[in-house]
């Protein structure tokens, strides 16, 4: 089953190193630049990187 592990680069609630073990388990991590904990940019829109990665998944 495809898994998309994302990390919002501006997320103050989840420090980047805390996702290392998940990354090891899943095999990859997509860092979303300019994105906080809710996966949105400063203007409240979804990250274009996130929407691109989501559309690339094959369920």
Description:
- The chain has 59 residues and is an alpha+beta fold.
- 27% of the residues lie in helices and 10% in strands.
- The chain contains 2 helices and 2 strands.
- It has a two-stranded parallel ribbon.
- The mean pLDDT is 88.
Are there runs of 5+ residues with pLDDT below 50, and where? none
How many strands in all? 2
Oligomer: single chain
**SSE string, helices as H and strands as E:** EHEH
Overall SS class: alpha+beta
Helix count from the secondary structure assignment: 2
Distance between the termini: 7 Å
Q: Tell me what portion of residues adopts beta-strand conformation.
A: 5-15%
Shape: flat
How large is the radius of gyration? 11 Å
Strand order in space, largest sheet: 1-2
Key words describing this protein structure:
two-stranded parallel ribbon, 59 residues, alpha+beta, 27% helix, flat, 2 helices
In short:
With 59 residues, this protein is α+β, with helices and mostly antiparallel strands.
Chart the SSEs and their pairings:
Layout: E1 6-8, H1 20-26, E2 30-32, H2 48-56
Parallel strand pairs: 1-2
């Amino acid at each position: 089953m495809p898994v998309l592990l994302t990390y919002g680069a501006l997320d103050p609630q989840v420090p980047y190193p805390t996702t290392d073990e998940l990354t090891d388990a899943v095999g990859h991590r997509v860092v979303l630049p300019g994105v906080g904990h809710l996966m949105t940019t400063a203007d409240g829109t979804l990250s274009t990187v996130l929407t691109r990665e989501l559309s690339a998944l094959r369920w």
